[in-house]
Design a protein that fits this description.
The chain is built from 23 helices and 4 strands. By secondary structure, the chain is mostly helical. The protein is extended and about 90 Å long. Residues 180-256 form the PP2A regulatory subunit B'' EF-hand domain.
Length: 451
Amino acid sequence: MCLRTSVARGCWKRPSAPKKSEQELKDEEMELFTKYYMEWKGGRANVNTSYANIPRFYYRLPAEDEVLLQKLREESRAVFLQRKSRELLDNEELQNLWFLLDKHQTSPMIGEEAMINYENFLKVGEKAGLKCKQFFTAKIFAKLLHNDPYGRISIMQFFNYVMRKVWLHQTRIGLSLYDVAGQGYLRESDLENYILELIPTLPQLDGLEKSFYSFYVCTAVRKFFFFLDPLRTGKIKIQDILACSFLDDLLELRDEELSKESQETNWFSAPSALRVYGQYLNLDKDHNGMLSKEELSRYGTGTLTNIFLDRVFQECLTYDGEMDYKTYLDFVLALENRKEPAALQYIFKLLDIENKGYLNVFSLNYFFRAIQEQMKIHGQEPVSFQDVKDEIFDMVKPKDPYRISLQDLINSSQGDTVTSILIDLNGFWTYENREVLVASDNDSVADADDT
C-alpha cells in the first residue's frame, strides 16, 4: 500500500519517541522540584531569614577508626581547657583581691571580723580586674548578707566563697583532662589514672610503698563508684564528683598536720586503706588472693549469718565461687555505711530473695530464722519472730502495711537497725539490749564526771 493511500485512510501514525528509563524520569522530577523550590525560596527570602542564624547544636562524635578526627577533638579539648584554666585567678591575683578587700573594709568593727558594704564592694570589683568581675554581683552580695545592722557582708566569708569557686573550677578542669570520652563523665580507668597521678601531691601518702599504689587506687576509686554509680554503669558524672564530699576528703591529705583521728575516719588515708587491705589479707587463709564464703564468715565480729553470706555469693560478682578485692570493697562499704541509701540498696537486693522489689513477712522470716539458730548455738533462748516482725514494721512504717520497699527503709532512717537485726547476730543482740547499753554508757559518763 502506498504512503498516500495510508494517509488518505487515516491509518498512518507518527513514529513514537523513545521511552524514558526510570532513572531519567527521577532525574527530571528532581530537576523540576529543585527549580520550583528555588523559585519558592527566592520568593520567601524577604519574609523571614532568622532560620539562617540558628546555630548548629549537634556534632557527631568521631568513630574509633577516624584517627585524625579523634586527635583533632582531643587537641581542641586540651586547648579549650587551657584557656579556661587561664581565666582562673592565680595566687598573686587572689592576694591582690584580699589586699583590696582589706583596704575597703567598712566600719564600725564588730568583734574582730572585717566587713564591707555594697558601695565599697562595687569599688573593689572595679579595681580587681576582669577575672574578678563575675564575683562582684548584687546576687552574690545578697547571698552572703546576713543580719548585719549596717547592710554589710563579712570580707572573710566573701573571700572564702571566691576561693571555693576557684578551687571547684580548677578541680573540674583537672578532672576533665582525664575525661577521655569528652562527655562529662569519668570511667573507672579514668578515675584510677587521676588518683594515681594525684598520690605524689598528697603528703599524707608519702609513706606508702609504690607496690601498694595499685591497691590504694582500687580502694579509693571503689568508694566513688559504690556511692555515685548505683546503677553500675561504669561511669560517673564529673558534676557528681564535685558535688559530693569525697574529693574534699581525698584532698584533705594535702594537710601535713592532719590529726590521727581525722586519718582514722578518712577512707582515703593511708592508715584506713592499709586497715581494709590488711583485713582482706587476714581473711584470706589459703593466700590465694580471693575469699571463699567460709573465709568471709570471719569478717568483723564473725556473727554474720550463713544465709546472708549465701546471698552475698549468689548476687555479687565472684570467680569460681570466690570473691576478689574489688567485690570485697563493695561489701565493706555497704556494711560500714548502713545508714547511706547506696549501702541500703546493696543490702536490700540481698534481702529481696524473691526479687519482687519489696520485703514481706516471708523474706523477713527467712533471714531471721538464721538469727534464731545462732542464738540456740550460743545457748540463748530464741526470740519470737512475730515480736521482731511487728517491731520492724513499727520502725519502718511502710506505705503498704504488708510490704517494705527500699524507699520505705531509707525514709524511716531505721534501715541500718533493720538490716542489722536480720543479718548479724551481734547487730540483733545490740538492738535487743539497747536500753541496758544506754544505761551503761550513762553510768560511765557519770563516773567520769565524778573523777
